[in-house]
UniProtKB/TrEMBL annotation:
InterPro entries cross-referenced by the UniProt entry: NTF2-like_dom_sf, SnoaL-like
Protein name: SnoaL-like domain-containing protein
Lineage top rank: taxon: Bacteria
Annotated SnoaL-like domain residues: 7-101
Classification of source organism: Bacteria, Pseudomonadati, Pseudomonadota, Alphaproteobacteria, Hyphomicrobiales
Length: 107
């Protein structure tokens, strides 16, 4: 699967629980949309990911990816401590100048 480096870093860091590497994949003004909430900037994104990791103990394994011209949509199997685990979720990334500028996670 051919993913931009920042998107690959996101999934690799998620697998290894490396918050610093994960946050380093985002631009300073990045926005994440997940579970009905929005997080903007590196510190809010760090807190979002650490809190989700603590709550769910999740890992995300990409299974397919497609470029729609405006972003990259990655279908991933997400496993963790939540009902109906594992689940397939879609991660939609917008990458700008090599960094993740936007991430939206949903079904």
């Amino acid at each position: 699967m051919n993913l931009p480096d920042s998107v690959k870093t996101y999934f690799d860091a998620d697998q290894s629980s490396d918050a610093e590497a994960l946050v380093g994949a985002f631009s300073e003004t990045a926005v994440v949309h997940d579970e009905g909430a929005t997080y903007q900037g590196l510190e809010p994104i760090r807190r979002w990911w650490l809190e989700a990791k603590q709550k769910y103990g999740h890992t995300a394994q990409p299974i397919s990816a497609a470029n729609d011209g405006e972003g990259i949509s990655v279908l991933a199997t997400v496993s963790g401590n939540f009902p109906n685990s594992p689940a397939q979720l879609r991660f939609r990334f917008v990458v700008d100048q090599g960094k993740i500028a936007q991430l939206e996670i949903g079904a």
